[in-house]
Amino acid sequence: MIVLDYRDKRPIYEQVVEKLEHLIVCGALEANTKMPSVRSLALDLSVNPNTIQRAYAQLEQDGYLYTVVGRGNYVTSEQEWKSGKIEQLMTEVREALTKAHDIGVPKEDIWNAVSEIYAETTP
Amino acid sequence: MIVLDYRDKRPIYEQVVEKLEHLIVCGALEANTKMPSVRSLALDLSVNPNTIQRAYAQLEQDGYLYTVVGRGNYVTSEQEWKSGKIEQLMTEVREALTKAHDIGVPKEDIWNAVSEIYAETTP
DNA sequence: CAAGTGTATTAAGACTATTAATACGCTTGC
DNA sequence: GCAAGCGTATTAATAGTCTTAATACACTTG
Question: Is B101 on the interface with A (CB under 8 A)?
Fold first, then answer.
């Protein structure tokens, strides 16, 4: 299902999260797909089950999976994980804007930045 | 000049940075004021000179101090450190906006957030 | 040239993060 | 109901990083 890169300095669970998140976002894993069990994926990748458990916990936290104890982990619908991600991003935006406002960046500068980023090449 | 809090779990150099930055931002230390030397402040706080050196390096990086080798560290003008900080904040804003744009947050939602944060209570 | 300044290098210690070992509790199907 | 599968919790070993210190070097000035 996925391949680990041992030259990568990041922890294993993070690599697993990244790769699975990518598969979900790209649509390779449809909603309600049953994920491989913690043990089987651990065996597959030759790592400890806890490592996979941690990755799955992260993915659940981020809204990409939901867990049913005793049954397994399943992919959430796009609608669900997307709304979670948007909420998270809007918080980031608000925090950045607040700090900019506090130090006295004028509204126009913000608006210009928004315009640049939202400038559609094909209107 | 400053007092350390040993219950604070953060590293010493970070506390020093925070407190000095605060003094500069609040205007307690005027532009071109000579800072205490690395050694004297270290002696004062009973820490290693390298710890103060690291704090000063951070403050220089952030644009609050400038260094003259063999002479000492001096406070930069408000104009200078403010423009540095604004640049940094605008980068943060742009990054957040780009991510929001990429996932499909509509322009209006951004504009609403900007309006809320820039809503002046005394127009 | 001596006393003051900032700087670079190296190493020791503390602390955190990652991973593993192991045992537990829940769900399902026979 | 019980065995085989699942996710979960606890604890510990290990690796790695971060912080701080020790020490020696280089520059400026009176």
Answer: yes
CA–CA dist B81, A2 (Å, integer): 47
Q: Which nucleotide across the nucleic acid strands is nearest to A49, CA versus C1'?
A: C20
Residues 6 or more apart in contact with residue A98 via CB below 8 angstroms = B117
Total structural domains in chain A? 2
Question: What confidence tens digit (pLDDT) does each residue in B87-117 have?
Answer: 999 999 999 999 999 999 999 999 999 999 9
**Do B56 and B83 reside in the same domain of the chain?**
no
Compute the nearest-CA separation of B88 from chain A (Å).
9
In angstroms, the CA A56 to CA B6 distance is 38
* Same domain membership, residue A84 and residue A69: no
| Domain shared by A26 and A41, yes or no | yes
Q: How far apart are CA B18 and CA B15, in angstroms?
A: 5
| One domain for residues A90 and A116 | yes
CATH of the domain at A43: 1.10.10.10
The pLDDT tens digits for A15-39 are 999 999 999 999 999 999 999 999 9
Q: What average pLDDT score do residues B83-87 get?
A: 91
Return positions of chain D under 7 A from a protein CB: 5-10, 17-23, 26-29
Q: Which residues touch strand C (CB under 7 A)?
A: A 11-14, 47-51, 54, 68-71; B 9, 35, 37-40, 49-50, 53, 56-57, 67-73
